[in-house]
């Protein structure tokens, strides 16, 4: 069985299959924020979706982080390090990417286990 959450005409924000939650790329809503603020917004959106699964950030298997500007790497890590649970850090990749909206500084894709 496949479960879909916040399904629209183009995509779902999250799908769950065989005990794994796949989140669509999460982006900030308030693009006036700096990289720390945009990252915090994205991490809250991830928490909210994981809660629907139901799972949480301690069950994240992989994080893929896309930054519009690699100069924002330290600021992103500042927010990430406050959020990520020590002892349960996921595998992670961070890449420089041209994002779909030029006002987005960050987009994060998450894969998590659903117990």
Q: What percent of residues are in strands?
A: 25-35%
Low-confidence stretches: none
How far is the N terminus from the C terminus? 15 Å
* Shape verdict: globular
How is the biggest beta sheet arranged? 6 strands, mixed
Q: Can you give a write-up of this model?
A:
This protein has about 120 residues and is of the alpha+beta class. The chain has 2 helices and 6 strands; from the N terminus they run E-E-E-H-E-H-E-E. The protein has helices at about 35-50, 75-85; strands at about 1-5, 10-15, 20-25, 60-65, 90-95, 105-115. Strands 1-2-3-6-4-5 form a 6-stranded mixed sheet, covered by helices on one side. The longest helix is centred in the middle third of the chain and has 18 residues, at about 35-50.
Strand and helix map with partners:
Elements: E1 2-7, E2 12-17, E3 20-23, H1 35-52, E4 60-67, H2 73-83, E5 91-96, E6 106-113
Parallel strand pairs: 4-5
Antiparallel strand pairs: 1-2, 2-3, 3-6, 4-6
Features:
115 residues; alpha+beta; six-stranded mixed β-sheet; 6 strands; 25% helix; globular
């Amino acid at each position: 069985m496949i479960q879909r959450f916040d399904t629209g005409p183009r995509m779902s924000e999250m799908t769950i299959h065989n005990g794994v939650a796949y989140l669509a790329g999460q982006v900030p809503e308030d693009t006036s924020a700096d990289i720390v603020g945009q990252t915090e917004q994205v991490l809250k959106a991830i928490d909210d979706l994981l809660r629907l699964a139901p799972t949480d950030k301690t069950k994240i298997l992989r994080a893929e982080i896309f930054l519009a500007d690699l100069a924002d790497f330290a600021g992103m890590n500042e927010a990430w390090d406050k959020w990520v649970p020590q002892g349960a850090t996921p595998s992670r990749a961070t890449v420089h990417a041209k994002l779909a909206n030029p006002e987005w500084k960050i987009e994060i894709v998450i894969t998590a286990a659903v117990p």
